[in-house]
Amino acid sequence: MASHRRPKQPGRTRVTVLTATAAAAVALSSQAAHADPKPSKTEVKAKVDKLYDEAEQATEKYNGAKEKQAKLEKQVGEIQDQVARGQDELNKLRDSLGSVATAQYRSGSVDPSLQLLLSSDPDSYLDRVSTLDQVTGKQAETLKLIAAKQRQLKQQREEATGKLADLDSTRKALADQKTEVQGKLSDARDLLNSLDAQDRADVERQESGKNGSNGSDGQSKPDLGKQAPSSGRAAAALAAAQSKLGTPYVYGATGPGSFDCSGLTSWAYAQAGVDIPRTSEEQANYGTRIGDPSQLQPGDLVLFFGDLHHVGLYAGNGMVLHAPHTGAVVRYESMGNMPFQFGVRVG
After folding, report:
1. At residue 319, what are phi and psi to the nearest 5 degrees?
2. What residues form DSSP beta bridges with 290?
3. CA distances in angstroms from 135 to 123, 139, 330, listed in the order given
4. Under a CB-based contact definition with an 8 Å cutoff, are residues 306 and 341 in contact?
5. Exposed/middle/buried for 164, CB within 10 Å: 0-12, 13-18, 19+?
6. What pLDDT sits at residue 340?
7. Least packed by Cβ within 10 Å: which of 46, 291, 322, 332?
8. Where are the alpha helices (DSSP H) in the chain?
9. DSSP string, 175-221
């Protein structure tokens, strides 16, 4: 006789577990289907280039903050020296005034007419009275000097306080810019590390600039034409920069073993005996501007990007000699690779 018992139903707990497992499997498969694909070598290079460009913008701000800090530290030191010297002068004036006041008190404690009657030597007394009158005049002058010195010291101390506050904010800005640069470079390294070994090597080789236009390490030198430099100093600066072909880019560096963009140009002109400003923005205002690239001559400064965060030296035939960015070396490059703004002919 067939059994009519109902088949055993699965427990509620078992149903719940199976349902949850199935849902998780569906979710994972859905995520896998919609996951962002691994970026290609070309995409990584474009992102890395953008990060390097942003890092260089932050680098020039870092350089500007560093320059400002150095100037403020010098100014604060000079003001503090002035205050110290002024305080010493004030102390001496007060000491001299104290001596005069003591002498007056001692000689003025008796009525002058009575002192004259009691004096055993009237002529000597009259001489002393005349001297006291002169001392009183000197005392008044000393009081004026003390008041003027006190006002001056107050102004200098207020100026020093303002400079110190400015210095403190500049140091904070400097730290912020350094953190920003390091963050951009770290992001770029992470992107590069996301590539396989061969693709990463290809991108790094492109970034380094050792692609046949470097002029160092046995690579061919580009055709720079035969145009003459704008001056002997421009020629000397260009020659100095050319001696650093292949030198690595390091943010904040001014040579001779590594450079950032404005570090290279300021170092090169220093070798020519010309002290130009440190940052690209300041260098943009140092000489005569040249808007037409066809009018550039070798040794002229060339500025790129709307915010002027990149600078190099015109090398001739449409080529710039510059320190491009982290991961690259001092090299020649076509000016057409960057948005040219104007040139500057250093006087």
Report:
1. -110, 145
2. 343
3. 19, 6, 73
4. yes
5. middle
6. 97
7. 291
8. 12-34, 41-108, 112-118, 122-193, 197-208, 232-242, 261-271, 280-283
9. HHHHHHHHHHHHHHHHHHHTS-HHHHHHHHHHHHT-SS-S--TTPPP
More confident call, 94 vs 320:
320
DSSP state of 243: T
Tokens of 2: 């067939």
Q: Which structure tokens are listed for 234?
A: 């421009």
Q: Are 230 and 274 in contact (CB under 8 A)?
A: no
- The pair of three-digit structure tokens given for residue 257, joined into one six-digit string: 């073993």
Q: Could you tell me the two tokens for 115? A: 């002192």
Please list the active-site residues.
261, 310, 322
Prior bond of 256 cis (ω within 30°)? yes
Classify residue 345 as left (phi > 0), alpha (psi -120 to 50) or beta: beta
**Distance, CA of 269 to CA of 274 (rounded, Å):** 5
